[in-house]
Amino acid sequence: MTTYSVDPGAPDASYLRFWREKHLCTLTTLRPDGSPHVVPVGVTYDPEARLARVITNKASAKVGHVTAAGADGAPVAVCQVDGRRWATLEGRASVSTDPERIAEAERRYAERYGRAPGPNPSRVVIEIALTRALGRG
C-alpha cells in the first residue's frame, strides 16, 4: 500500500469511493493552548465545492475552537480509517448558522450515513475549505 496525496477538488475514483462508504471519522481542532482536540464525527466530502462538512451542536468545544480562530478560519483535519486504508482531508474550518447550508450538510449526512440526523435547533455546520487530501489504500 502506498501513501499518496490527491487534489481535494479532483480525487481519483478509489479515494472518492472510500469517502462515500459509511465510516466514523475524527475531527482534529486546536485548543487555545495549541494542543489537539480529537473527536469522533460524521463527515461528508464534496470535492466539487472543495468542502468537507461536519454537523454539530453550536455549544460544542469543536465549534468554540473553530470560532476562536477568527475570520481566517481554523486549521483542521478530518480522518477516517478502515483497517490499513485511511484518508485525511485538511483545510481551514469555519462555522455556519445559515439554514440552507445546514440543510445541505444534513442532506449529505443522510446520503452518506443512511439516516437523517435527528432534529436539533442548536445545529450548525463546520465547513472545511479543503487544501490537502492524503490517503493510503
Give an overview in words.
With 137 residues, the chain is α+β, with helices and mostly antiparallel strands. The protein has one domain (3-136): Pnp Oxidase, Chain A. The chain is 23% helix and 45% strand. The chain contains 3 helices and 8 strands, in the order βαββββαββαβ. Strands 1, 2, 3, 4, 5, 6, 7 and 8 form an 8-stranded antiparallel sheet that branches. The longest helix is centred in the C-terminal third of the chain and has 15 residues, at 99-113. The termini are close together. The mean pLDDT is 95.
The CATH class: Mainly Beta
Parts with pLDDT < 50 across at least 5 consecutive residues: none
The shape, in one word, is: globular
CATH A-level architecture: Roll
Number of separate domains: 1
Number of strands: 8
What amount of the residues lies in strands? 35-45%
Q: How would you characterize the largest beta sheet?
A: 8 strands, antiparallel
- The CATH topology is Pnp Oxidase, Chain A
Q: Percentage of helical residues?
A: 10-25%
Query: What is the average of the pLDDT values?
Result: 95
Briefly note the structural class of the backbone.
alpha+beta
Distance between the termini: 6 Å
- What order do the helices and strands follow? EHEEEEHEEHE
Number of helices: 3
The CATH homologous superfamily corresponds to Electron Transport, Fmn-binding Protein, Chain A
